[in-house]
Amino acid sequence: MHWNMEQILWALVLAAHLILLIVLMGRDRLGRFPWFSAAIALSTVHLIADHLLHGKLATVVFYWQSYIGVLLDSTLGLLVLIELLRSVFANCKAGIFLNAKGWVGWTLVTVGVAAGGVWLWGPWPAWKALTADPKETPLLLTVLSALKSQLFLALLTVEAGLLMRVFGRRFRSRFKSHPQQIMLGLSTYALGFLAVQATTDIIKHTVHLTSRAEYQHIVKLFSNFDNARFALWFLVLVWWIVWLWRDEPAAFRLTTDEAPIEIEPAVLDADLPAAIREDPREGDPEFRD
Question: What is the model's pLDDT at position 101?
Fold first, then answer.
């Protein structure tokens, strides 16, 4: 059996999904990241359903199944962002602009910027075109909502990833922490998705096809873009497998009246006097064998 590039990528991505789910369960990450785990599980189901049902269902039915899945993926994606941001920024005090109330304002800003980006991105179909055939209107609205929700989630993910990188350290979220690594993977894929989307939109608006050969060339080019995006998703999954398999660096956490403080064990031991670092039981004969 001869497999093409799309089938090979599909098999690799599916295998990476399954391995990641095993890691999430085997390393007890489900309780800490339930929405992220649910998103990966839904992505796995969506991946299998699209592959198995493609060409076996009527076109309209397949579109309903596929784009409703995209809407569910986007909804869970928003919940994943909330989960990651709360794990870093919740219940912390770090100044006037970085406290819990301040992040309400940051949320409004990031959501507003993402919504504005979706509105300006376009193109938006005319309402008459959507309602020309009442029987097709629900499906067209579903497709439009799914595509715009993908774009909104990608823009919001990039913003959230930037906020976590800029302010995360102030909230004791280091680069090697699991929330940071998950967000790094999400924002990297979101940037790739936006790059592919922008490139294809530019080509659609600037290239004027004059022959069937040019049309086939553009179709192949778009297929290569999708393969590149799919390959990036595979690399992100591998990244998550590696980092979520590993435990986060151990650290002691001392709590003060202002905010929790993390101190590495080696640093804590080095700052103690030698008399304190020694075990006081060593000179006691009652503790000897």
Answer: 55
